[in-house]
Amino acid sequence: MLKSSIAKRLMLAGVTVGLLAAPAHAQLDTALSIAKSSTAAAAASQQRVEAADDRADNAIREYRAVLQQKDNIELFVAQQDIFRASQLSEIESLRRQLGTVEQIKQGMSPMMLKMAAALEDSIKADLPFNLNERLARIDNVKSVLGDPNVSPAEQYRRVLNAYKIEVTYGLGIDSYEGAHPTMPGNVVNFIRFGRTSLVYTSKDESDIAVYDLPSKSWKTLEGADGIQMRQAIRIAKGEAAPGLVYAPVMAGK
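Now predict its structure.
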């Protein structure tokens, strides 16, 4: 009877202990669950912090890039302002120049006419070599100067070209055929020593004369002068090797 009572008490104590132990286990599970949740929340918070930090770094880099771009744009604008000021100055200069173009054109026409007339007078007063060709060139220049469809620049170029050709006549010697100065039916050889002397010889070299500019007439050459002219003509035509020849010059009174 006594043993049965003790056994019952022990069973009741075990049940009581079991009942008391059950709430403690549940509390431990709850604590562990809360700890796990806290850890996950901390990890998530850390990730959010790191992401925010990355975004901040990116924003700083973008801001610095924008500042650099802003500086570059300001420098470009400053350069463009300088360029624009230079262009405006050049435009103003061109406007002033254009304002004087008409005045220049008005002054050029009479100047070029005077140049052509002076060149024509010079040719007529010069040795009469290639006379028809030279006067025809002057006539052409005067025709161009009287043509309103020809630009002033082209007219000026024609005048200068005529002067240039006349200048080149003063260089070297030249030989060409032409009509006899006093007997047009006969052909003679002319030889020009720059602008210093003009001589002609008949085909048989029996008639040799030099032009006397002061008297505007031809003077006969004889003796050694005639031999010199024959040699000079051969040199000018390329029929003889270059050599020293003397140009006959008529002494002025």
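Helices lie at 2-125, 131-145, 152-168, 224-236.
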